[in-house]
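Usage

Read records sequentially. Each one opens with the input sequence:
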Amino acid sequence: MIKRKIAAGIFRVCDALVPGRRELWVFAGQSGWRYADNSRYLFLHAVQQPDIEAVYFSTCPHERARIEAEVAAVAGAGRKVAGGAAAGREKAASGRANIAAGRAVHPLSLRGLWLLLRARVVFVTHGFGDVKWLRFGRRKVLVQLWHGINLKRVGLLDHKFDARGAASLRQATSRRRARRLQREGARYSLICASSQIDAYQSAACFGVPFDRMMVTGLARNDYLVEKRSPQAEPVRGVLDGLGLAGAKVILYAPTFRDQGQTRYFPFDDFDQDDLQGLLVAEGAWLLLRGHSNDAGALPVGGRVIAAGQDRFEDVQELLPFVDVLISDYSSLFMDYLLLDRPVIFLPYDLQEYSRERGLLYDYDLVTPGAKPDTYAAFREDLLAALREPGRDAKQRQQVRQMFHAFQDGKACERITQQIKELVCLI
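and closes with the structure output:
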């Protein structure tokens, strides 16, 4: 901890001395290694802008290889090469390699540190841990893209930091964490939000003035509207390889719980054999995706298949292939509303979760879908969702209008435009 603070202090002094380049933009994901979420989608948009030099930070060699492969794919899709076919292919391959080279950088390498010093704009999705806790001066534009539309309380609104949480964390820990979050929030230049209501709650969660909120829509949701991604076909290939070609797909993706393991199919009358029979009869498969922080075993088998990060690295790319989503408090369903397809909610521990973690909204108001509390009811609701996807469409539209101010697939354009204006690139 002491070494980290010393290193962060030295870096901040260097940052004050080294002149920045306003066209150099650095992107980082969760904990400085993950290539996913809003930073990934905005990065892929930025690399196609001729006046932006975009680089992505990751400590993971596998992720860096993915980044350069995707940049090459994006460059190949966006360029036409003149000349003969063979010469054109060779020239195109060379051009893609040149564009992709150096786009993925280890944040703590000498090159990574130098790029971070020189960059005028830095994007994160979780916090300062995304850039390995390095600190820099206020000349930099630090943009918090965040990683979802919050349903549960996060940041300063988490119950850990109010009167009831102080008793569980015991004052000192609670105060330290709250102060750290306040300092971090004060450092953000801008925070992206999907709508006015999302902006208001995010400002409260981060403890920042409302004028730092930027209602643009979330970058990752452009893919859901426009279905543009170099990984869309590989996702289809994985599904086809699992034997799901032409089948109905159900995704069950609950959130992480701070207290205890997630309980899958939380019904006292749960009948696994009956569920398997239902899936066979309806020509459907159920993909079960536990939260990345949840280490519990998944109850898979038959037509219930594990769909973790080892199989589908970015759940966003899977959503267009999903016919029915099963969720609880995960913000994933907020994105899924853009597809206007059925959602079933299983909030089996709603009172406990509300007490321990807390929710930002009235749960029933913002969750447009069935909420069965027995397997018999779940069975009927699942059949209805598969056979009558238009059910609850009006309620879905109401919630979609609340949380998605824009539904045009142009969030990346809006974010890029506003940042360019801020750093005077245009």
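Summary fields computed downstream for this record:
- The two ends are 41 Å apart (CA to CA).
- Residues 79-97 have pLDDT under 50 and may be disordered.
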